[in-house]
Amino acid sequence: MHIETLRWVGERPDQARPGYVRMVEQTRLPLEHIEIEVRSVPEMVDAIYRLAVRGAPAIGVAAGFGVLLGIQDQAHREPEALLEHLDGVVETLAAARPTAVNLFWALERMRERARAEAQAGADGERIVAALFEEALAIYEGDRRTCRRMGEIGAELIADGASLLTHCNAGALATAGIGTALAPMYVAKEQGKRIHVFADETRPLLQGARITAFELMHAGIDVTLITDGSAARVMSEGRVDAVFVGSDRITLGGDVCNKIGTYGVALAAQAHSVPFYVVAPLSTVDPSLLSGREIPIEERAPEEITEGLGRRIAPEGVAVYAPAFDVTPAELVSGIITEVGLIERPDRAKMEAALRRGGIEPTPSKPEESRAPGS
Ligand code: MRU
Q: Of 17, 87, 199, 366, which one has the greatest count of Cβ atoms within 10 A?
């Protein structure tokens, strides 16, 4: 049984009994496995910012549910007033975190659905009902997509393989069985014996706290290592492939993911270890050509200076705390999406994959810059 990361409670809009979101409180893992109830838009923004819910696809699902929290009592409004209110809700949710494009993808999908309904003459009640359908479709779609990526990715995993992953791109980062961890779960279902090195992932330790917990819960053999050990275990010939998730992928195939991923990719290249990214098409930003254009979240310095429940760095020290980095396409062996494996990604292959998924690429910036290192 995989962990249920988040879900909507309350099937349809019901004025008398408003629905709400139940989610695993991920900041407390692994010592406590508790759920929290999220009942308003500000509470959802807080849950996303605090990383109570985290991982790009889960943030997208949370955003869809966040819209429901903001509009479920608005069915009495005229369509125009409802759309205006929706814009405010979307803007508030969009400010929660800047990097994972799934947040903006889901919010835009919700807004477009509401506009299309209004244009077709729907009243407030119908628009709200349609938004419920859309949010649940995002949730269900994510579950299906994870399974599909798992099936495609499992073909790259041989019996007896030893893999390495960074951060957490598992069930706890999605509504389904994860992205980077999905191929591992499917490989296990297929009877393959696998072993996984999990980078601890400084500073918030998603690898130590969440990936290690999740893989152990699923009965997968996992070894926790410090981030600095990743190159070492590769040099020892103990890693057959790296699987990571992503927060945003550009049309050029540059991959943004948790800080430290770029170093893992460089080490993988140095040791001829294949470096795979597993991500749904909703993580591809069809408007960006280069990784340099991706907004990189910077977190509070205390996340670095106050680890382990106490101050660990001198008072007053300068801190630089980017939460993500960009791995240039050149270092990526393949991107596993729900429409197939994109080997050695480049713009033509990325655009072809998007079109297979029914998405039209819309590059809005000139191709002047490339990701660091490219
Ligand atoms: O800061 P986080 O924990 O939200 O960062 C998560 C990651 O970097 C994941 O690897 C990424 O979102 C992919 S999750 C399927």
A: 199
